[in-house]
Automatic annotation (TrEMBL):
Gene3D superfamilies: Vaccinia Virus protein VP39, Winged helix-like DNA-binding domain superfamily/Winged helix DNA-binding domain. Pfam families: Dimerisation (PF08100), Methyltransf_2 (PF00891). It comes from the Eukaryota. One of its GO terms (molecular function) is O-methyltransferase activity. This is Uncharacterized protein.
Length: 364
């Protein structure tokens, strides 16, 4: 019998050992997520903050009111979280190994009074919730099933209701509340940075409609920085009462009130391409010509490797999060260009990339 052709050169010993270690890492990364969940549930970041920002293990065990015999296990948990970049560690000659906060764990401290602090506890708890994890466990079955369009997300196929929908609370009220808080925490982070680094997109505007602007946090930040801009928030009726005074209960698919510019911040990634085109068409109708300053401002993930492998990996994980749980997706520049063209826009410009997100102006 003829030997089967090799699909690749047999790896070297060193490559095989590295391959096995990588396999361990990728198979076991869920334990990093669960260790993070555990740290959040125990309140470890807040405890370290309350202990003055640095602590040793015995003090941490006492602050968390854990049984003393759990100290060695807490050491193992903290060791993984330090190696994963969630805490920092140091050494003190007298007290031994110490742990302190870094920018990531600072975001998990409850009750910090700082303009740029947005408490991320519920983002973590929603992404590692049983409902999300169960949905991700069905991925292979979801691929094999012959589902008819519009394709339900694995979440919807498993749980029978879409996420962030009026029916989600019927599935599980606590999940619905955690997810809504988690989305708000995710969406509100970095608005200060956007205004500081990219304020020119708002300068010179007379009026702005923030479409699907949630509780109006973004609109309030813009109005604080640029008090001359008349800012409306368009939202669903059940959300609009939480927005500032100019909240408008409207369906984004049916009508966007006229303004010089329309803002879509972290909105398009929640919708499929056809829905994005419908939304963008309504936005185009709402704005004047380019010469009169008409534009749609989009703040959303713009997928791409240019920001380095860590940011890119974070973007791709966010895309999987949308895939498993929603009808949305993260898009690269080509994907955006396609929906802009279909919605009848003539041009666009990526004004800046801020972290994993891009700021795009789209012109009629
Ligand atoms: C991801 S959140 C948007 C976040 C917000 N732009 C921000 O940056 O904080 C998506 C929002 O879309 C709103 N939404 C969903 N369907 C809508 C519709 N048909 N018309 C208007 N808003 C809608 C939801 O209520 C939700 O607040």
């Amino acid at each position: 019998m003829a030997a089967r052709s090799q699909t690749m050169v047999v790896p070297t010993d060193a490559q095989l050992l590295k391959a096995q270690a990588d396999l361990w890492r990728h198979s076991l990364y869920y334990l990093t997520s669960m260790a993070l969940k555990c740290a959040v549930e125990l309140g470890i970041p807040t405890a370290i903050h309350n202990l003055g920002g640095t602590t040793n293990l015995p003090d941490l065990v006492a602050a968390l009111s854990l049984p003393a015999n759990k100290l060695p296990h807490l050491r193992r948990l903290m060791r993984l979280l330090v190696t994963s970049g969630i805490f920092e560690s140091g050494n003190n000659n007298l007290t031994g190994e110490t742990y302190c906060l870094n920018p990531l764990s600072w975001l998990l401290v409850e009750g910090v009074e700082a303009e740029d602090h947005t408490y991320q506890k519920y983002f973590v708890l929603s992404t590692v919730s049983k409902h999300y994890v169960d949905a991700s466990l069905t991925l292979a079955d979801w691929f094999k099933k012959d589902l008819s369009p519009p394709l339900p997300s694995p979440f919807e196929e498993l749980h029978g209701v879409p996420l962030l929908h009026e029916k989600t609370a019927e599935l599980d009220e606590e999940l619905d509340a955690i997810v809504r808080e988690g989305v708000a925490a995710h969406d509100n982070l970095a608005m200060g940075t956007i205004i500081r680094e990219c304020g020119e997109i708002f300068k010179g505007l007379q009026s702005l409609t923030d479409c699907s602007g949630a509780d109006g946090t973004t609109a309030r930040a813009i109005m604080k920085a640029y008090p001359h801009i008349k800012c409306n928030v368009l939202e669903q009726p059940q959300v609009v009462h939480t927005a500032p005074t100019d909240g408008l209960a409207l369906d984004i698919f049916k009508f966007v009130p006229p303004a010089q510019a329309v803002l879509l911040k972290l909105v398009l990634h929640f919708w499929n391409d056809d829905d994005c085109v419908k939304i963008l068409e309504q936005c185009r109708k709402a704005i004047p010509s380019r010469e009169e300053g008409g534009k749609v401002i989009i703040i959303d993930t713009v997928l791409g490797p240019s920001l380095g492998p860590i940011m890119h990996e974070a973007q791709l994980l966010l895309d999987m999060l949308m895939f498993v749980n929603t009808h949305g997706r993260q898009r690269d520049e080509n994907d955006f260009r396609e929906i802009f063209t279909k919605a009848g826009f003539s041009d666009y410009k990526i004004v800046k990339k801020i972290g994993a997100r891009g700021i795009i102006e789209v012109y009629p």
